[in-house]
From TrEMBL:
<comment type="similarity">
    <text>Belongs to the ketol-acid reductoisomerase family.</text>
</comment>
<dbReference type="GO" id="GO:0009097">
    <property type="term" value="P:isoleucine biosynthetic process"/>
</dbReference>
<dbReference type="InterPro" id="IPR013328">
    <property type="entry name" value="6PGD_dom2"/>
</dbReference>
<keyword id="KW-0560">Oxidoreductase</keyword>
<dbReference type="InterPro" id="IPR008927">
    <property type="entry name" value="6-PGluconate_DH-like_C_sf"/>
</dbReference>
<comment type="pathway">
    <text>Amino-acid biosynthesis; L-isoleucine biosynthesis; L-isoleucine from 2-oxobutanoate: step 2/4.</text>
</comment>
<dbReference type="InterPro" id="IPR013023">
    <property type="entry name" value="KARI"/>
</dbReference>
<feature type="binding site">
    <location>
        <position position="255"/>
    </location>
    <ligand>
        <name>Mg(2+) 2</name>
    </ligand>
</feature>
<keyword id="KW-0809">Transit peptide</keyword>
<feature type="domain" description="KARI C-terminal knotted">
    <location>
        <begin position="247"/>
        <end position="394"/>
    </location>
</feature>
<protein>
    <recommendedName>
        <fullName>ketol-acid reductoisomerase (NADP(+))</fullName>
        <ecNumber>1.1.1.86</ecNumber>
    </recommendedName>
</protein>
<feature type="binding site">
    <location>
        <position position="317"/>
    </location>
    <ligand>
        <name>substrate</name>
    </ligand>
</feature>
<feature type="binding site">
    <location>
        <position position="295"/>
    </location>
    <ligand>
        <name>Mg(2+) 2</name>
    </ligand>
</feature>
<dbReference type="GO" id="GO:0004455">
    <property type="term" value="F:ketol-acid reductoisomerase activity"/>
</dbReference>
<feature type="binding site">
    <location>
        <position position="291"/>
    </location>
    <ligand>
        <name>Mg(2+) 2</name>
    </ligand>
</feature>
<dbReference type="GO" id="GO:0005759">
    <property type="term" value="C:mitochondrial matrix"/>
</dbReference>
<feature type="binding site">
    <location>
        <position position="255"/>
    </location>
    <ligand>
        <name>Mg(2+) 1</name>
    </ligand>
</feature>
């Protein structure tokens, strides 16, 4: 569906139900931005637009296109069943609840997620259920179990994926690698995706601050002709910033690649390598940590986020700029083959096989925690704790 058609559909799906009362706030976001009364109100909405991303045009969707009143209207007959209460299940469900939607949680009884959900106000039997009960009650089945659990529990969830319901994911993982996961949805339901680009914790805190994490949206199956419209509406309901379009396959390829790369794996590898060389050359932990992590996270990286790389460079000394401009190419050349190997390992399914094998072990959480504790116990991050405790705001 083209962006303009989607704009019309999004508007139409709400407009007839509100036309009788001419609900001003609902129309205001659209009507105030369209041409005088004689022209069609369906012509433009502020939220759906084509933007230039460095020379390539992409269609994006924004929160302003679906204000809270519209969301409530759009989902008034729906029950959003969030299966799983990990970082995403938690963030998405709390944001939808705050947006006025009817949300229920499905998790295994008395597990860690169940206890956390209870502690955050979800009530057993009212809006907190077993996975099966929630899947039975929901019209949107939002599969936010861990990726390994999506494979292991598909036989339990699948019987509830019935005509009229919408199956939702936040990762293209289960569907794209269905040769390994076995997740093949029935042909008669819409299957959509909205993948926040960041942790559920950030999704929640940014939403509470009136900000938003960007998310990608995709459609795998469109039975009703409304699958894309639904993905936009849910994407906004869970508290996203702007939404951009992708496919299930591209989402999972870029996501697995990015998190193993610069977002998490590569950045830690680089931190470690730089820190260790400084320490091996007699620099103190305080100096090594400040020159590696603290200056990056507290000073320079926020500047990149705020105004871009060149702006960060131009706000450093010319000595620093000269060095960075000279050395970035060497790091690019050294890292490029590794990134190519990583992308290949994602596409050929190696990364998925490893994630599924490891994360479906009964003690998966415990063994991950052992590895995380090793990081926490390392000199680098123990030094980091001391550095953080010395930040003026933490010294009281
Ligand atoms: N975290 C992110 O940054 C992020 C970002 C975008 C998209 N995603 C995607 O969002 C989805 C959810 O990710 P997440 O990070 O929120 O979740 P997660 O931490 O990977 O898993 C969360 C949930 O899975 C449940 N679970 C695991 N094994 C189970 C089993 N055998 N039986 C029943 N429940 C089981 C856990 O319940 P218990 O507590 O009972 O074990 C928990 O509620 C995934 O598809 C992920 O790829 C994640």
């Amino acid at each position: 569906m083209s962006a303009r058609n989607l704009a019309r559909t999004l508007f139409r799906s709400v407009a007839p139900r509100v036309a009788a009362s001419v609900s001003r706030p609902l129309f205001a976001s659209v009507a105030s931005r369209v041409a005088p009364a004689s022209s069609s109100v369906f012509v433009q909405t502020r939220g759906i637009k084509t933007m230039d991303f460095g020379g390539t045009k992409e269609t994006v969707y924004e929160r302003s296109d679906m204000p809270k009143e519209k969301l409530i209207e759009y989902f008034k007959n729906d029950t959003m069943a969030v299966l799983g209460y990990g970082p995403q299940g938690r963030g998405q469900s709390l944001n939808m609840r705050d947006n006025g939607l009817n949300v229920i949680i499905g998790v295994r009884k008395d597990g860690r997620s169940w206890k956390q959900a209870v502690s955050e106000g979800w009530v057993p039997g009212k809006n907190l259920f077993s996975i099966e009960e929630a899947a039975e009650k929901g019209t949107y089945l939002m599969n936010l179990l861990s990726d390994a659990a999506q494979r292991d529990l598909w036989k339990i969830v699948k019987p509830y994926v019935t005509p009229g319901k919408t199956l939702y994911f936040s990762h293209g993982f289960a569907i794209t690698y269905n040769d390994q996961t076995g997740v093949v949805p029935p042909k008669d339901v819409d299957v959509i995706l909205c993948a926040p680009k960041g942790s559920g914790y950030t999704l929640r805190t940014l939403f509470q601050e009136g900000k938003g994490l960007n998310s990608s949206i995709a459609v795998f199956q469109d039975v009703t002709g409304k699958a894309k419209e639904k993905s936009v509406a849910v994407g906004i309901a869970i508290g996203s910033g702007y939404l951009y379009e992708t496919t299930f396959q591209k989402e999972v390829y870029s996501d697995l690649y990015g998190e193993r790369g610069i977002l998490m794996g590569a950045i830690y590898g680089l931190f470690r390598a730089q820190y260790d060389v400084l320490r091996a050359n007699g620099h103190s932990p305080s100096e090594a940590f400040n020159e590696t992590v603290e200056e990056a996270t507290q000073s320079l990286y926020p500047l990149i986020g705020e105004k871009g790389m060149d702006w960060m460079y131009s706000n450093c000394s010319v000595t620093a700029q000269r060095g960075a401009l000279d050395w970035h190419q060497k790091f690019y050349d050294a890292a490029s083959p590794l990134f190519k190997a990583l992308y290949k390992s994602v596409v050929d399914g190696t990364e998925v096989k490893r994630a599924l094998d490891k994360n479906s072990q009964p003690d998966y959480r415990e063994s991950l925690e052992v590895e995380l504790k090793e990081i926490d116990d390392s000199e680098l991050w123990r030094a980091g704790k001391t550095v953080r405790s010395l930040r003026p705001e933490n010294s009281k």
